[in-house]
Design goal:
The complex is a heterotrimer of chains A (277), B (329) and C (314).
Chain A lengths: L1 H9 L1 H18 L1 H4 L30 H37 L1 H15 L3 H12 L3 H28 L2 H8 L4 H37 L11 H8 L8 H28 L8
Chain B lengths: L7 E12 L6 E12 L3 E5 L6 H8 L8 E10 L2 E2 L5 H7 L4 E4 L3 H4 L6 H12 L4 H14 L5 H5 L8 H13 L5 E5 L7 H18 L2 E6 L2 H7 L2 E6 L2 E7 H6 L4 H14 L43 E2 L5 E2 L2 H6 L1
Helix pairs in contact in B: 4-5, 4-7, 5-7, 7-8
Chain C lengths: L1 H28 L4 H6 L5 H10 L6 H13 L13 H36 L4 H15 L2 H16 L14 H35 L2 H8 L4 H38 L5 H10 L3 H29 L7
The chains are: A mainly alpha (277), B alpha/beta (329), C mainly alpha (314).
């Protein structure tokens, strides 16, 4: 663990990514302290340019753009973490089962994953949200489901390669229980690519959330989310370009940071692994 | 070591190669000199990592730079200096004047082109033949390296052929421009024992028939005894001894050569214990200032660990790099 | 090869059948339906029953499924509950727009990504490599709606230019068609280029390390031949894989782009269908998307065997 962080800090991309991710996460955690205004409060000053009073200006309803951005970070981080967590845990369980038991179990799971994987992630998330109804919890569930196939494939591939090694066969031949083999021997070997995939998935989850909110199917107004802020800004962006530029910059920097961190983690833990996406 | 004259195809002088690493670097080949005569089969033997392959790649201008870099020396092919040649000049030398054969025939060919296309490609860079004529010549060459049904094989992709067949293809590719010098880097190591002899015989025949010279790199003294005229022995980046093959087995000058010879003979001998040189090769960069063999040498004297011996040329042209022999001469 | 293709096409049937069933079940599981949505809160029970009967929604779900799927097999995807227009012709005409957009974007991305990827690989660890890699990472990190919005913003604020609001079909006016599609294609192409460039660079670097490259150099080949004829061709397999996946996800990604640039594509049609709970539209277009997907996967697999003689299907 210590060695991992040392390696991460030695790497230039790693440092940059970690700094960016920490900035976003801290902003999300400390949102009430950082925000200068109530993100939902409408003021008299509509579409005011950035400057004194309003750091990044106000939107068409006179709400402070900076404070909305800060609270928007909460949504992004929350959705990103929880959705990735759902996808990662389900994928881990399915991938372990498919890889370890093989045969019919493997076939059933992987065909299901093929069907899920056959859809563009945004379209699939969109359909699920449409079915469940647009709100925060359902957005998270939808994005989580979309991430499952990637994890299942990564974990299954790794389990298969671990299983083919001789020591697993010898452990099983002396009659050690399946669950014990799985948790004591297979799981630790699967961890490296699993962690790499988790890090890389965070940025995708944030991206899909922003897209859903942009389409009006994610976080519902008036709650601030970077995607919905950008969507709302389109009506007034020629008069108030800052309302469009600010959320764009926030989205790009956040996703870029998570991507940098993901790349660095991959280089450290698993130089051979290439992302399944 | 005779001076450069027109019976020599290749003349290497004082070749030194370094490996750039994070902590400074390491000497991979140090001050190696040798000549290859016209029509001669010249063996280079040594254990893995002794610098023998690196020397060959340096001659052909194929060193991966960085991390490997020629530090000093001269390589003259037919009187022409290669180390100072431009990349474009080296390209015209490779394939036309120097042909190369590699260790791993299974990976030496591009999987996406047919055998015929890849042989004909050698002609493309060095002659003005059109595609059809080049292909015909490639097919003829396949026949000469003993491939049955050359026309059919020319249209096959590499993955359909066995290792032995592929090595014949690589030989055809290296020889199609009739280069003056052929460099074969462990050409039989990756092959089945039964195929090894066939391939060696084939190379010998072709080299002899065309009046080519060949550098044969190997770790196998048996191969040297069967095919080479002269041989150079490398140890830890030093060329420790060079001599005609007959002499090196009859009267080795360097203690390392002697050890090699004894270990080979003990395999052939009846019932006796296998002989092994005590110790193991130090890795590049770990060498001290002295003779690189001194800590494994039974005959060492105090000086051996302090100062590297110079190369001594004996009156009969043999060379040796050892303090014991140096004083004799 | 032919038997392989036939077998793969036969395998489409269970996959598409499964997807159709899943979509149908999903849509009918949710509380509330298009009729509720149409009539609003003050629903008149009699009118409601009449509407349900009109759309065949008063039957159990499996009967409804049977009615729908047997129609699909006859080429009848039903009519939109909102517009009353048949679904299949609408899908096909909108698919043309999405397909054009996808093709233009793919071309844009290759024009950017492949030269940059090659350059980055052969100039490894120089500023050119660094700059290309940063651009690629940026491409991977920008959502297409964000880049699209920025492009529109810059066009209107700086150049006082507004992309046309009406789509011009290619056959009506190729130039007008280009004007409709150029900006969205640039946006999607630039984003696609990110991962294609990363893949080109890493595959090329890996191949340049291979033994066969050394053999080609030993023949006296110029670097141009080494890189383009040999290393690049060997890198095509992973590049084709990623392009195939991308064209797939691009078809979905166009949902957002079509909305921003108001293009009458299939993505927008599906989105509208979803928000309005227009069952025949959603079922039809998702089934169609799935069909396109399996076709793309098949094309990618066939391309594999065209590129690499070691891959043969029987």
């Amino acid at each position: 663990m210590k060695r991992f962080f040392a390696a991460l800090l030695r790497d230039k991309t790693g440092r940059l990514g970690l700094a960016g991710v920490l900035a976003v996460v801290l902003t999300a955690l400390l949102a009430p302290l950082i925000a200068t205004h109530d993100p939902l409060a409408m003021t008299e000053s509509l579409r005011q340019a950035p400057g004194r009073g309003f750091l990044l200006g106000t939107d068409e309803f006179g709400r402070d753009v900076f404070s909305r951005l800060v609270y928007g970070a909460r949504v992004s981080v929350y959705v990103g973490l929880v959705a990735t967590g759902i996808g990662a845990l389900c994928g881990l369980a399915l991938g372990l089962a498919a890889g370890y038991y093989g045969g019919a179990v493997d076939n059933a799971i992987m065909r299901l994953m093929d069907v899920l994987f056959a859809f563009p992630s945004i379209l699939l998330a969109l359909a699920i949200v449409a079915v469940l109804g647009p709100d925060l919890g359902n957005t998270i569930v939808a994005i989580g489901i979309v991430r499952i196939p990637v994890f299942t494939r990564t974990v299954r591939a790794e389990v298969l390669s671990v299983k083919s090694q001789e020591y697993i066969a010898s452990v099983r031949s002396v009659g050690v229980r399946d669950s014990r083999v799985l948790f004591r021997h297979v799981l630790p070997n699967v961890m490296a690519p699993f962690i790499v995939q988790t890090t890389l998935s965070l940025s995708s989850a944030i991206l899909v959330e922003a897209s859903l909110s942009f389409l009006g199917l994610g976080i519902q107004p008036p709650n601030p989310s970077w995607g919905s802020m950008l969507s709302e800004s389109r009506r007034v962006m020629e008069l108030a370009p800052w309302t469009a530029i600010a959320p764009t910059v926030a989205i790009v920097l956040a996703i870029l940071s998570f991507n940098l961190l993901g790349d660095a983690v991959r280089d450290i833990l698993d130089p051979k692994l290439k992302s399944v996406e | 070591m005779s001076g450069t004259n027109d019976t020599n195809v290749l003349s290497v002088r004082g070749l030194s190669i370094r490996l750039a690493t994070r902590d400074g670097g390491a000497s991979v080949v140090d001050d190696a000199s040798f000549d290859v005569g016209r029509g001669e089969v010249f063996g280079i033997v040594g254990e893995s990592g002794c610098g023998k392959s690196v020397t060959a790649y340096a001659i052909a201008g194929l060193l991966p730079t960085p991390p490997l870099r020629v530090e000093a020396g001269s390589v003259r092919l037919g009187g022409r200096e290669l180390l100072s040649a431009s990349p474009a000049e080296m390209r015209s030398v490779r394939g036309r004047d120097i042909g190369m054969i590699f260790q791993e025939p299974m990976t030496a060919l591009d999987p996406l082109y047919t055998i015929g296309e890849q042989i004909a490609e050698s002609l493309e860079f060095h002659s003005s033949l059109d595609k059809r004529a080049a292909m015909e010549k490639a097919i003829a060459m396949l026949g000469r390296v003993g491939i049955p049904e050359p026309r059919r094989i020319a249209a096959e992709y590499p993955h359909r052929l066995s290792g032995g067949m592929l090595q014949r293809v690589v030989i055809a590719m290296a020889m199609i421009n009739e280069p003056a010098l052929l460099i074969a880097d462990e050409p039989t190591t990756a092959l089945d024992v039964t195929i090894q002899a066939q391939i060696l015989a084939l190379m010998n025949d072709l080299v002899g028939a065309n009046g080519m010279s060949m550098i044969l790199i190997t770790h196998d003294l048996g191969v040297v005894a069967e095919t080479c005229d002269r041989v150079a022995v490398f140890y830890g980046g030093h060329l420790v001894e060079s001599a005609p093959v007959g002499r090196i087995f009859a009267e080795p000058l360097h203690p390392y050569t002697d050890g090699l010879r004894r270990s080979v003979e003990s395999i052939g001998g009846s019932g006796g214990k296998l002989y092994a040189i005590p110790g193991s090769v130090p890795s590049a960069g770990r060498f001290g200032p002295g003779c690189r063999f001194h800590d494994r040498c039974a005959a060492r004297v105090a000086r051996c660990g302090i100062e590297a011996p110079p190369t001594t040329v004996l009156p009969d042209g043999r060379t040796v790099r050892c303090w014991l022999r140096g004083e004799e001469a | 090869m032919r038997t392989y293709i036939v077998r793969r096409v036969l395998l489409f049937i269970p996959v598409l059948f499964g997807i159709s069933l899943a979509v149908f079940a999903l849509l009918h599981m949710i509380p509330g339906d298009a009729v509720d949505l149409m009539m609003g809160v003050e629903a008149n029970p009699e009118l409601r029953a009449q509407l349900l009967r009109q759309y065949g929604m008063d039957y159990p779900w499996y009967v409804q499924y049977w009615n729908w799927i047997s129609g699909v097999l006859r080429g009848d995807f039903g009519v939109s509950m909102r517009t009353g227009l048949p679904v299949l012709p609408e899908i096909l005409s909108r698919f043309k727009v999405t397909l054009m957009l996808t093709l233009y974007s793919a071309v844009v991305s290759w024009l950017i990504a492949i030269p940059l990827g090659i350059l980055a690989a052969i100039k490894r660890n120089t500023w050119i490599d660094g700059a290309s890699r940063f651009l690629a990472l940026l491409g991977v990190s920008i959502p297409n709606f964000a880049l699209g919005t920025m492009v529109l913003l810059v066009l209107s604020l700086v150049f006082c230019y507004y992309p046309p609001l009406d789509y011009t079909p290619f056959l009506a006016s190729p130039l007008g068609n280009l004007e409709s599609l150029i900006w969205p294609s640039l946006v999607l192409g630039a984003i696609m280029a990110g991962s294609v460039m990363r893949m080109t660079r890493s595959a090329l670097l890996e191949n340049l390390q291979q033994d066969y490259v050394r053999t080609v150099r030993a023949k006296g080949a110029p670097e141009r031949v080494v890189v383009l004829r040999h290393a690049l061709k060997n890198s095509l397999l992973p590049i084709v894989t990623i392009v195939g996946m991308q064209i797939g996800s691009l078809l979905g990604g166009t949902v957002v782009t079509e909305q921003i640039f108001s293009l009458p594509g299939l993505g927008l049609y599906t989105l509208t269908g979803i928000t309005q709970r227009d069952y025949p539209v959603v079922q039809g277009s998702i089934l169609f998307f799935a069909f396109i997907f399996v076709v793309i996967n098949l094309i990618v697999d066939i391309l594999y065997s065209r590129i690499d003689p070691r891959i043969s299907y029987r």
